[in-house]
Amino acid sequence: MKCLVKSIIAGVMIGIGGTVYLSVENKVVGSVLFAIGLFAIVVYGFNLYTGKIGYLVTNFNFKYIKELVITLVGNFIGTFFVGFILRYTRIYSLISEKAKALVDIKLDDNIISILILSFFCGILMYFAVNGYKELKDVGRYIAIFLGVIVFILCGFEHCVANMYYFSVSFSWRLNSFLYLLVMILGNSLGGMLIPLCDKIIKK
């Protein structure tokens, strides 16, 4: 239950980050502000799937896999909640329209493209989260913001952020779930790349 709650809150924070991104005109400013989601998650120790999947390389056991599944479910609940409840606010028409435009671009893309874009996002998320853990002073915060800013400006695909975009634009279809699964796979493979290479190098 503790894991689920921390995962739901992480989903809420990503939803807030996604909301501010949709609320500003400038894409660069939006990407900087979006980072508030990941910043809060690492500071308070919430559970974000893309921040945890990379550590499966060094924690390959049933308990950690179960934690990852719970985290993914919790992230979905949190992002869906934010996307759903915002429809009762005055900002909904603006953000839902922008989210729908984003979602349409994603769903019009092909599976291979989505997988590759998700893969690179996974790399950056591990870089950001592990950078926060390993670096000291201001460097750890720079890692967080750089990871988020770069993945957004590059157009890479983040599965949890997309859970929010699908939810706030009410774009959940069978095709949406298929694309989300591809994003999860890509984020997972990308997130495990650096720790896997590091493990091989240290052998």
Description:
The model has no long low-confidence stretch (mean pLDDT 96). This protein has a single domain, classed as Glycerol uptake facilitator protein. It is globular and about 55 Å long. It is built from ten helices and no strands. The protein has 203 residues and is mainly α.
SSE topology:
Layout: H1 2-23, H2 27-34, H3 36-44, H4 49-52, H5 62-85, H6 92-108, H7 111-134, H8 138-154, H9 159-168, H10 174-201
Helix pairs in contact: 1-2, 1-3, 1-5, 1-9, 2-8, 5-9, 6-9, 7-8, 7-10, 9-10
The gist of it:
The chain is an all-alpha fold and 203 residues long. The chain contains ten helices and no strands.
The proportion of residues forming helix, as a percent range, comes to over 70%
What composes the largest sheet? none
The backbone outline, from C-alpha atoms, is: globular
Distance between the termini: 37 Å
Q: How many domains, as an integer?
A: 1
List the quaternary state of the chains: single chain
Structural class: mainly alpha
Order of helices and strands: HHHHHHHHHH
Low-confidence stretches: none
Q: Give the tally of β-strands.
A: 0
What is the fold-level CATH name, i.e. the topology? Glycerol uptake facilitator protein
Can you identify the CATH class?
Mainly Alpha
Q: Which homologous superfamily in CATH is the superfamily?
A: Glycerol uptake facilitator protein
Q: What proportion strand?
A: under 5%
Overall mean pLDDT stands at 96
Radius of gyration: 16 Å
Number of helices: 10
Proper CATH architecture: Up-down Bundle
